[in-house]
Amino acid sequence: MPRVHYAAREIVCKIVYYGPARSGKTTNLQWLHRAMPEDRRSEMVSLATENDRTLFFDYLPLDLGEISGFRTRFQLYTVPGQVYYNATRKLVLRIFIKNNFTVSPQILIVIREFSSDRPSLKHIINSKSVIYKATGAYGIYLTNIRFDDLAMLLDESIKDKNN
Amino acid sequence: MKREDLQRVAGALEDPMRQFVRESRVRTAILVNRSGQILAHHGFSRGLDVTNVAALSAAAHASAHALAQITGAGHWMHLHHAGQEQQLFLAPFALRGGDELVMVAIFDQDSTLGLVQLFFDRLTEAILAMPELGGKLPTGDVNAFEDDLGAGVERALSENREER
User: Fold this and answer.
1) d(Cα A79, Cα A58) in Å, to the nearest integer?
2) Are A47 and B51 within 8 A, CB to CB?
3) Position A23 pLDDT exceeds 60
4) Taking the CB of residue B2, how many other CB atoms lie within 10 A of it?
């Protein structure tokens, strides 16, 4: 749900990419950064390790023009996927969810299927409880967030594979 | 950093870290790389989740570094937080190969910030003089990244158990 500043005449949307390690969260942001015209995007901040794994978060601010006279600003964030960075992931989620009493961020779950030992994609998508459990495990409960605020992003490679 | 490299680097860091903890009188000192992998850990850490401390320290380092770059403030030197009972000192230092390590020191009224800074400078001099840490630190394979991170924690925890 976006935050609307009537005085400043702007609409701010926060989107947090959430998902397992190497599911394409940062890649998606990088693609968006490349695809956007230069005058619509700012510098992408990526706090990553030497292996280019997200260590804290990636941040991409986008300016997507005007809707009925309101300037639209999108702030895209990712969380780290590795289990090792539970503490930093928890911190990022807490900042976005608990500090936004008036507005919930859109949470985009990014999923990619790598091997047969992981739960199948169909199972993950059909199970809302997986998402509730995933966030609940970090002390963040989605009681104030409607399920509609969660969205899924399937990597293109999965669609190809399944088709 | 791979498991076998970690053993070599961690073995070399053991004595200087022990000396740093003894002389600066900090309660705990943890040395991590930029990924948050624990290279050395010495001191009293019961009740402390070293994995979280290491991961958050690496994140704090990455944030401070990015902030310094964005604002043109240059290289950041250290972060210090004085709590009511415990104090936290976080400082990066560059190795000759261009890699950076981050020192996390937790201390109480037995030590002071000045003392910690003084012996931290001596520790960095000692580390920079080591042939084991003279070049660029080996980087782990992307596929084995989580295992490599876990190896540091395993090592730190087993050392801690032995000391008790």
Assistant:
1) 7
2) no
3) yes
4) 15
Taking the CA of residue A50 and the nearest CA in chain B, the distance in Å comes to: 7
Q: A47 vs chain B: nearest CA distance in angstroms? A: 6
> How many residues would you count in chain B?
164
Contact B145 A87 (CB under 8 A): no
Model confidence pLDDT, tens digit, residues B108-151:
999 999 999 999 999 999 998 887 776 566 666 666 777 777 77
CB contact under 8 A, B35 and A49: yes
Whole-number pLDDT of residue B81? 95
* Sign of CA pseudo-dihedral B45, B40, B109, B82: negative
- Is the predicted pLDDT of residue A103 greater than 80, yes or no? no
| Beta carbons within 10 angstroms of residue A151's beta carbon | 12
Residue B103, SS3? Answer: strand
Q: From the list B62, B70, B99, which residue is nearest A55 (CB)?
A: B62
Query: What ipTM score was computed for the predicted complex, to two decimals?
Result: 0.75
What pLDDT shows up at residue A125?
A: 47
CA nearest neighbour of B117 among B131, B130, B132, B107: B107
Cβ contact (<8 Å) for B36 and A50? no
d(CA B67, CA B14): 32
d(CA B164, CA B159): 9
pLDDT of residue A160: 41
Tell whether the model's pLDDT for residue B100 goes beyond 80: yes
Among A85, A94, A95, most B C-beta atoms within 10 A, so best to mutate, is A85
